[in-house]
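During data preparation, a discrete fold description was generated, and the record follows.
___
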Amino acid sequence: MINILIKWLVVSLVILASAYAFSGIMVANFFVAVVAAIFIGLVTAILRPILLILALPITIITLGLFTFVVNALLIMLVAMFVPGFIVANFWWALLLALILSVVNLLK
């Protein structure tokens, strides 16, 4: 349970830092970043496996790089439902997906 809370806190801080560093990602405050991190975690746990199975052929062809596209689409989906969390376009979502992947790799 503690590990999940720490992961949400780290993802929240990454989202907040990305919002300060990049103009295409906007977060109203830390609470919105926490809510966005929770929603990203839920969407990733529920929808990501389904989407990865559906996109398996293209993922194999691109040697797994299409996974970042799936993650970016999920981030854009979360941005549509969390007020105060704005991702300007797909490329900013892809950048955030790459940053979150690197942070999750380092943990």
In short: The chain has a mean pLDDT of 95. Strands lie at 25-27, 85-87. The chain has one domain: 2-106. The first strand starts at residue 25 and ends at 27.
